[in-house]
Amino acid sequence: MSLPSNLNPDEASPPWLNKGDNSWQLTAATLVGLQSVPGLVILYGSIVKKKWAVNSAFMALYAFAAVLVCWVGWGYRMSFGDKFIHFLGMPNVSLDAQYLIEQAFLGYLPNATMIYFQFVFAAITLILVAGALLGRMNFLAWMLFVPLWLTFSYTITAYSIWCPEGWLSKKGIIDYSGGYVIHLSSGVAGFTAAYWVGPRTTKDKERFPPNNILLMLAGAGLLWMGWTGFNGGDPYTVSTDASLAVLNTHVCTATSLLTWLMLDIIFFGKPSVIGATQGMITGLVCITPAAGVVQGWAAILMGMMSGSIPWYTMMVLHKKIGLLKQVDDTMAVFHTHAVAGSLGGILTGLFAVPKLNRLFYLVDNWQHYIGFFYGLHTGHTTAGFKQLGIQLLGIVFVVLLNIFTTSVICLLIRLIIPLRLAEDELQTGDDAIHGEEAYALWGDGEKYESKLNSIYEEFPPPSKGGEVQMNQMA
Length: 474
Description:
Blueprint: H1 9-12, H2 19-47, H3 53-80, E1 83-85, E2 88-89, H4 97-100, H5 111-130, H6 139-161, H7 167-171, H8 179-197, H9 202-206, H10 213-232, H11 240-268, H12 273-287, H13 296-306, H14 309-315, H15 322-326, H16 333-351, H17 354-361, H18 372-378, H19 381-416, H20 423-428, H21 430-434
Antiparallel strand pairs: 1-2
Helix pairs in contact: 2-3, 2-5, 2-10, 3-5, 3-6, 5-6, 5-8, 6-8, 6-19, 8-16, 8-19, 10-11, 10-12, 11-12, 11-13, 12-13, 12-16, 13-16, 14-16, 16-19, 18-19
Family: Belongs to the ammonia transporter channel (TC 1.A.11.2) family.
GO cellular component, one term: plasma membrane
GO molecular function, one term: ammonium channel activity
């Protein structure tokens, strides 16, 4: 079969296009998308009290759709486009056909693939923020929050750290796949927004059982397996580094889950399913900034620390620090994302292997991209100290930026519409907000709940045999 004379096959498959890379990138992006829809939709809808199942799931679904429209409208160019100001790209539409089929700024891919890949990362960041606000935020306020936060917070972090022209990128920060851009920012933003929105009702804070733990595990499983694309797609090529990143991701996650599980058994006497899920999440988050630039033994050490340090902050420090007790962070995103993300960024600065960094960043420069321990080992001590300092600088930048921008956005929205649902809506839940309920067979499940509370119903200092009340969950 011959082609029509007016068609040029080189336009559909130009010389710079690598079909294998492009196929993997589209697959990886879809895996990340599945983490959100249906992964976090299912996880949120099942881990909350029954009366909040529909609203919680729908907050995630709405964010996914809203981010995509904003992303192609202006968000992608602000994050990865031509420089506008020191830490932000020029706002512009990303829907022109000619632009979409041109080569992306990294990799042998068209812009359309890169836009899609970066979109699913932006979307999951907003959905993670939602985790801190479940069970009381006004849905109409959430509808305003999503585009505003994407525009004035996420784009700044993404441009600064991931765009080649970004100021932290030029300094040589290592954030392989979003420990800073996604997890630290969502953890801090979620915690900050939770402060402004206010807590759940007293009854919900005291008793907030999951309505379906089996479905929660299904959502968690999608989240875990989807991380293959999350970290495996960031070299933008089908490379040995991508394979290493995937294996390190799963090794760290499994180690973290088992560490958290053992701590629960030692201090509470019960192997908690919710606790294991939290350990899984902290492992995934911790390895993300380091996935393709550390060795396997480092991934195991990172898993041990991500399964223990966030466990300690959640189960011990949470009851001792006034601000943590004051803010009602429903899904504990501060611990599972902000703490674990910061931990991952610091450990990346310690364990990053120079050779692996050169494979990922395609540079041959001993002044950047060298873990502190490798700097000591190779005699590049100053460079190792510098890398660790840059990693810490990135944490300070993301924390301060998100406290400021999230606070301003919440205060602006509050001038237009209440951030918090009305009291009658808080008492009723889904039916009052959406006119729909997740389950129509019986009431809120109180008669069907186990007499033994989960050990994750609030976070007092660990004590053997002590009953723990659930306040925040994974």
